[in-house]
Amino acid sequence: MNKYFKSAYLFGVLGGVLGLVSFLVLSIFYEDPTTLNLVFGYVITPVSIYLALRYFKDYFNQGYLSFAEGMSVGFVTYMLLAIISFLGIYVVLAISPDFFELIKENKVQTLIDSRETIVSQVGEASFNATLDSVKEMVNSDVALNDAIWKIIPGLFFTIIISIILRKNPN
Predict the structure, then answer these.
(1) Which domain of life is it from (predicted)?
(2) How many domains does the chain have?
């Protein structure tokens, strides 16, 4: 069982650390690095999954990869990536409450700036509920949002990459 997860651990941890580093670097240049960090997550997640599956296939499984093995290794990879990213962002925001307040203010301002468009699409009540929700946001919400947007694409990319890399012994 351990052979299934050695590559997942390696590339999941690497992807999680890169996700945290991107958040920190983007926070230097932007008041609200969360949106751009999500975009970076869309890049690093499939790359981490691909590398984990390829590494497992080539170095632990004699060049073979079943769909089930790919899904198992991919799952561990994107979950580790999401957990490490979550914990890192949570700690950064807990240590720096002023930074968190700046992110929250930017999110509230973005909603207010887009008010007319949002109200025309979903209605006044929905806009007000969203605005109230953002105003009550806590730092774990920011970290959890980042983690969720690594898990959802992670599942999708794991399915696709597992199918592409699948090779069963004849």
Answers:
(1) Bacteria
(2) 1
